[in-house]
Amino acid sequence: MEQPWFSIGVLRAEKNMIAVLSGGTGSVKLVRGLASQTHDINVISNVGDNYWLYGLYVCPDIDTIIYGLADLLDYDKGWGIKKDTFGFLRQMEVFGEETWFRIGDRDAATHLIRTNMLKNGKNLTEITKWMCEKFAVEIRVIPVTDNTIETRITTNKGELHLQEYWVKHRGKDDVEGIQYIGADKARPNPEAIGAIQDSDVVVIAPGNPLTSIGPMLSIKGVRKELSKAKKKVVAVSPIIGNKAISGPAAKYLEAAGIEVSPYGLAKMYSDVCSNIVIDTRDKILSKKIESLGMNVYDTKIKMSGKLDEDALGSFILKQVRV
Ligand code: FO1
């Protein structure tokens, strides 16, 4: 049979099966970069920032990955569907509802159908799989758990859901701590555990270490599985120098007493990960990070467009030896 031009034979990456722990905008960029090399990817998604609004169940990290892979993501904002309209939200305002969380009209359909399916007895794993099919996304997106985990930020003004802290209050208040409510009782998704076990390499995406990756690592079974597999786990730093590439990661790390640097990150991940990709500008830290028992790789890690995404995806699959 004739091979299509994009045949796996042509584009075959050196690693066969990839699992990616993912959450937030930095993660979707890397997942797209990896997907430019191979479709043998299972994305394990954070669920800690899921949020109930107007009776709808919103799963930002799952949707961001699906929209990103379906080429529907509003890349300027890093969430939602590009060119979406906001008639639904305007009407909610007329009804006297708060509208600080900007749900677009097409995006609302995603939350509505998901909520309806939940009410009809489907779990988040089944719904997410169905959604990938509807958006023609070949890559599997697996919620890290079907149970509820809620990331809450303790501030000087009280405790808030992550979305309330970051979106409603615009991340203004001082952070005193971060909690993952429900993580102690959450069962890891067996499909997520299977994806870790079956992969040749597990990538911890450059998502926010405490609010995108942290909730997943707080599930005992997930942490244990990664620790067992740590030789094939590679983290990509979301920090360059002493600054987060984007978002409030630095503020959260400081609040948790973690050094804001690729070294601080490596130390935080050192029990679940033996390899780290840092920015070339931080190469000077390599020896110090290696003293933690980790292999260090350096390249350009800031992804400012498709070329950068693809280059980083290719670097991880071709240069990182796990
Ligand atoms: N982030 C914002 O900063 N403002 C919003 O109004 C907003 C709405 C929104 C709607 C759906 C969705 O899936 C995500 C949305 N986000 C919004 C992003 C979200 O708050 C976070 O960036 C993620 O939870 C972090 O991964």
Distinctive features:
322 residues; 14 helices; globular; 14 strands; alpha/beta
Question: What does the model show?
Answer:
- By secondary structure, this protein is α/β, with parallel strands linked by helices.
- It has one domain (8-319): CofD-like domains (Rossmann fold, 3-Layer(aba) Sandwich).
- The protein has helices at residues 8-11, 25-35, 60-69, 87-94, 105-119, 124-134, 162-168, 190-198, 209-217, 220-228, 249-255, 262-269, 286-290, 306-319, and strands at residues 18-22, 41-45, 51-53, 56-58, 140-143, 150-155, 158-161, 175-181, 201-204, 233-236, 239-240, 243-244, 275-279, 295-299.
- The strands form 4 sheets. The protein has a 7-stranded parallel sheet with strand order 5-2-1-9-10-13-14, sandwiched between helices. It has a 3-stranded antiparallel sheet with strand order 7-6-8.
- Helix 2 (25-35) packs parallel to helix 3 (60-69), helix 2 (25-35) crosses helix 14 (306-319) and helix 8 runs parallel beside helix 10.
- The longest helix has 15 residues, at 105-119.
- Residues 1-13 have low confidence and may be disordered.
- Bound molecules: ligand FO1.
- Ligand FO1 binds at residues 23-24, 49, 58, 60-61, 63, 79-80, 101-103, 107, 163, 166-167, 212.
- Ligand FO1 binds next to helix 3 and helix 7.
